[in-house]
Amino acid sequence: MPSKVTNQGSDQESTKRPMKAIVKPEERELELKQEEKNALQVDLAERELRAETLRAELGAFERQYLHFVGSRYAELDELKAEIAAHHAAEQPQDGRFQKAAAEARARAQETKLSAGEKSDEAPKSFEASPEMKRLYREVAKRVHPDLAGDGNERTRRQVLMAEANQAYERGDEDKLAKILTSYECSPESVEGEGAGAELIRVIRRISQARGRVAELDAEMDQLLHSDLYQLKSRLDEASKLGRDVLAEMTAKVEEQIQQAKLYLAKSSAPQ
Question: Does the pLDDT value for residue 5 go beyond 50?
Fold first, then answer.
């Protein structure tokens, strides 16, 4: 009898225990994907920081270079073009001088543009290809803000449509195609509630983050192999040794400018 009483007590205790909640496969998968997304977002943030830092450093260096050296190279090439034109005028029958003058003028124009000066050439007219027009129509049909269901979605679409307009004006087909694909595959375009719908949204966010990581890796590789970065690296190494290479380059170009001016003055002086 005592043993029977004990068993009844155990049965009563077992009935009082709460049942363990059942975790559905999509809920467990959602939890794993959330963890993957969070780790990827941390990594992405670090990559964005490194990329933006490198962009800012190279941008500042380029502005310094153009200010101290590039503008003087533009002036020097302009003087060289004037000298070449002077020689061509003295020898109008010699095709070599005419060719040299044309090449010097083209080089001066290119240097002027590189130094940030405005071009003398007239702006080109806009002409969209059939594929550009097709892409823009598709973007407008799917992304236009007037088709949005709520305020947040409308704001997002306004940003995308503005980007599409800019890409169209630039004739950038790749950018238009990217905007369309990005919108169609965006997490925000997934409708519905529950673990299943949220799982799809998280998977798309992971895909977006991975895509951005690939873009940043490609951009960083391009920047690190650019002529501007190589020049900056050489100047940074020289700076550690106490040399101001920018100042040295500026002084050298200034000397060449003065020599070119003296030559032009002598050539233009009445005989």
Answer: no
